[in-house]
Amino acid sequence: MGWQGARSALIGRTAELDRLIAVLDAADGGLAGVALLGGDAGIGKTRLVTELAERARADGFAVLVGQCAELGDALPYLPLADALRGATGELSAAIDARPVLGRLLPGGGDLGQESTSGLTQQQLFGSMLGFLSVQPVLLVLEDLHWADQSTRDLLVFLSRMLQTERVCLIGTYRTDDLHRRHPLRRVLAELKRLPSVTAVELSPLDRGEMTDYLVTLGGTDARMMGEVVDRAEGNPFYAEELLEAASDGSSITDDLAGLLLSRVELLSDAAQGVLRGAAVAGRRVDHDLLQQVSGLENLAFDDAMREIVSRGLLRLDGEYGYAFRHALLQEVVYTDLLPGERTRAHAEFARLLTLREGAAAELAHHYLAGHDLAGALAASVEAGRRAERLGAPAEAHRHFDRALGLWDRVPDAERLAGIDHVPLATRSAVAAADSGDNHRAISQLRRLPPSAEVTERLAYFLSDTNDEEGAIAAAHAAVEMAPEGPVLARALATYARALYWSERHDEVEPLATQALEVARAAGAADAETSALITLASLAALADDIPRATGLLACATAESSGNLAIDLRAIFTYARIQYEYGDLGEAAVTTDRGMRLADETGLNWSTYGTDLRFLRFLIHYVAGEWDLAERVAAGFGIRVGTPSEATLSSFALFVEVARGLPVVEERLSWLEPFWSSDALVSYMAHGLAAEHALWRGDPEAALEHVDAVLEKLSPNDPAMIRLSTTALWALADLGRASEADGFLERARFPTVIGPGSGVRGPMGPEGLAWLARAEAEWHRAHGRFDVEAWRAVVEAFDFGFVYETARSRWRLAEALLVSGDRDSALEEWQRAVKDAASLGARPLSTALEELGRRARFVSVRSNLLTSREQEVLMLVAEGLPNREIGERLFIAPKTVSVHVSNILGKLGVSSRTQAVAAARGEGLL
Asked: 759, 753, 749: which is closest to 538 by C-alpha?
């Protein structure tokens, strides 16, 4: 594998390639140009030049490529000689006609001495200029950072003298090899001021581009690719080598290690020693600390650092420190150390860091690497505490986990840590949950001896994973074990929460009320907030929204001391506002929660994730789909953790409804999580079923529904939408015999559990889905019930733009069957308008088909392509070609072609006639 060998699209490099092509096109038109292409080793320069060369050959250019070598001035004009060896045809004859050029070829003589003569160089340069005027030429000089003085002189000469020749000159160089005194620096500065020179510098690829590139190389494991992307830091060659190494079970390939170490070996012995010390410190190191470890005096250390920095191995980082230019360079230098060297260096860093405040994380690392396990344990616990205070739960969990791993190997661990084993393990589990890994938290807690505190936390996290049975059992056990006071208050609040979704709903309010009383008496603010949330949720179920919002306003007024519970309170507040149709207030509350999650590092906690989804959902329901897509842009496709998979599945709402091609890719990455995560399974299978229905495959839709049915509790409100989707599929198939069972499934959550008739009314969206289930059931039995579909439209019309439009589609169909054509047309037109404003292409297609069958639109509507339809709509607005092009991101010439096609298809001769004809045909 090689970056330059990957024949996939130039991921992340199209803008840079376009700039190079512009220079080539100008040369083709008789305006010679020069492009200087810079970037770190492996960043993709050769791949770009290779692509440009293919384009040049297709345009009739001769392509000459010369490679500089790491030989200094020993062989002058080496890249030019290398390039001339590739000359054929007219260019070969032109070399024969110019003896000075011929002497650069094998057997042609030696210019090594003569090239220092001004006359000889002048003759050579003149001959080269004439040679390049013979035919169109792309001349590439690779790796100019190794160029000799004569080649640099030639580069300057050609850049200044090439004018009307059909020549494109490309020079590439490594920016990471240009130390401060490198002779090419002056040349580049001089050339970049010339109007004929285009400077292109390749920056690292971003995470999305890197992941796309790894996929083209055959990467499939999301976790492995995530690690490769992190380590490669935007460098495609590094990523390719790391992917190969990971596939072979190693850390780094020999080729990559050799490439990186070759630059280190150019340093003096003193500088190499300092760099090795920096590698032991990690990616970044403090100036004073590094000098102390090096043992060098001020002047000697400054000389060594100047050498290292000038060669681009370390860069200045802040006011008093340095950082490795690339993390892999630090890794290979560190790996190259002998075991004894590492241990001694780590011990010295640990000794020096003990004198500094706030260095617990670094200290723990050096203690562990220096085999001081006792010091590593104590420092790890302190680092975890500090990470907690800074709102970094993932880091806190990592530090606490490292301390727990050392616990049995260190005598007197409790004294060193300042905390007992069980409380430390509990804090580690809480940190894991706060970072979004509830399963890890549950696993840790289950390994601990049972106690009221541990069992209560276990019950709480089991509730977050929808393990109703496990949560109830653990919460009951916690209440039985808990002494009077804060622990009992938390256990009671968690027990009430665990029972909330169960059939034992009559027990919830007394438990929550008791929890509230005990919490207030014991001063347990977190338990008080938890109890208030449950009581507010009960009030909302009873349709007592003023009481529910009042309780939640109280619960969210001040921090409870537990950020996860604070986020749960804000989310519940926003959810109730959303479910009862107050989308504006729900948006404000959700934004508040998202800010808190972001500020405290809880973005990936259960409710940090839920708040982001709710913000997306508010945009989705309100019909603000462009904003929804903007939010969903942060829901990664290539997922590796349950939290990432959960957010990714939410993005399918808009992507399926808009018929975006990314749906299939997103589903393929979510599939590994379908068996282990009930929420991801419901979201992904449910929306995959809708996707299949839009594509005319109701059998596949039913398979998706069947795959998730057993994962949902029968009284889960999500069952209503899932059953409705199944009824849609059965109606399309005409299989009425199976419809009754799914209608019963849809009705069941309204009879048992939260939102049932026993406990209070459902929210407007749940009732709307139930109404649609009833209407689809009629359709499955061959009945187009107008009143049933009218009830669905009215139910969704609380502000759910898309579902209202989708229901109007079916209502229009039912009205047509009933013979009420005028009402059908009215409903159809409203649905068409809303579908178009949303960009809901599958729905628009279905409406177009219904319109053709009903003769609401002309059968000629399929004459225009989708792009021509877009152009026609803008022509109807009176926009000129330039503005249409800006709107659609296409060239004015392309717009002109589309307009000509539209005129021809409609049989008219002017734009005005086209608009009139289109309106008459029902195309607008």
From this structure: 759
Domain 635-853, CATH among 2.60.120.10, 1.25.40.10, 3.90.245.10, 1.10.290.10: 1.25.40.10
DSSP string, 611-655: HHHHHHHHHHHHT-HHHHHHHHTTS-SS--SHHHHHHHHHTHHHH
Tell me how many helices (H) and strands (E) the chain has: 49, 8
User: Both tokens of residue 356?
Assistant: 């500094």
pLDDT at 3: 34
State the Cα–Cα distance between residues 270 and 617, nearest whole angstrom: 60
Whether the predicted pLDDT of 165 surpasses 80: yes
Residue 807 to residue 673: CA distance in whole angstroms: 32
Within 10 Å of residue 602's Cβ, how many Cβ atoms? 25
Q: Is the pLDDT reported for residue 219 higher than 80?
A: no
- List, for residues 576-622, the tens digit of each pLDDT value: 998 887 888 999 999 999 999 988 888 888 898 899 989 999 999 99
Q: Pairing mode, if any, of strands 284-286 and 314-316?
A: unpaired
Identical fold between 252-337 and 860-921: yes
Query: How many residues are given for the chain?
Result: 924
Sheet holding 167-174, edge to edge: 62-67, 137-142, 167-174, 33-39, 197-201
Dihedral sign for Cα atoms in the order 508, 514, 519, 520: positive
Task: Provide the pLDDT for residue 759.
Answer: 47
Of the two residues 695 and 220, the one the predictor is more confident about is: 695
CATH superfamily of 3-201: P-loop containing nucleotide triphosphate hydrolases (3.40.50.300)
Please give the average per-residue pLDDT across 474-502, as a whole number.
Answer: 94
Report CA-CA distances (Å) from 360 to 291, 419, 600, 629.
20, 16, 20, 41
* DSSP state string for 85-105: TT--HHHHHHHHT-HHHHTTS
The widest CA-to-CA distance across the chain, in whole angstroms, is: 103
pLDDT value, residue 115? 42
What are the sequence ranges of the domains in the chain? 3-201, 207-251, 252-337, 338-449, 635-853, 860-921
Q: Report the percentage of the chain scoring pLDDT > 70.
A: 94
Q: Which comes out higher in pLDDT, residue 888 or 788?
A: 788
104 vs 75, 77, 134, CA distance in Å?
11, 8, 19
Would you say 643 and 436 are in contact if contact means Cβ atoms under 8 Å apart? yes
Quote the percentage of the chain above a pLDDT of 90: 50
112 — pLDDT class (breaks 50, 70, 90): very low
The burial of 898, by beta-carbon neighbours within 10 Å (0-12 exposed, 13-18 middle, 19 or more buried), is given as buried
As a whole number of angstroms, the distance between CA 733 and CA 285 comes to 67
Give the range among 167-171, 643-647, 807-811 with minimum mean pLDDT.
643-647
Sequence letter at residue 276? R
φ and ψ at residue 150, rounded to 5 degrees = -65, -40
**Contact between 110 and 145 (Cβ < 8 Å):** no
What pLDDT score was predicted for residue 633?
81
**C-alpha distances out from residue 130 to 100, 122, 530, 908, Å:** 12, 12, 84, 55
CA of residue 65 relative to chain centroid, distance? 38
| Identity at 588, one-letter amino acid code | V
Q: What angle do CA 712, 716, 722 make, to 5 degrees?
A: 65
Q: Report which of 204, 158, 217 is spatially closest to residue 16, judged by C-alpha positions.
A: 204
> What sign does the dihedral 431-432-437-440 (CA atoms) show?
negative
Q: What is the CATH number of domain 338-449?
A: 1.25.40
Backbone φ and ψ for 760, nearest 5 degrees, come out as 130, 170
d(CA 419, CA 175): 51
What CATH architecture is 860-921? Orthogonal Bundle (1.10)
User: What dotted CATH number matches 252-337?
Assistant: 1.10.10
Full DSSP string of 412-476: THHHHHTS-HHHHHHHHHHHHHHTT-HHHHHHHHHTSPP-HHHHHHHHHHHHHTT-HHHHHHHHH
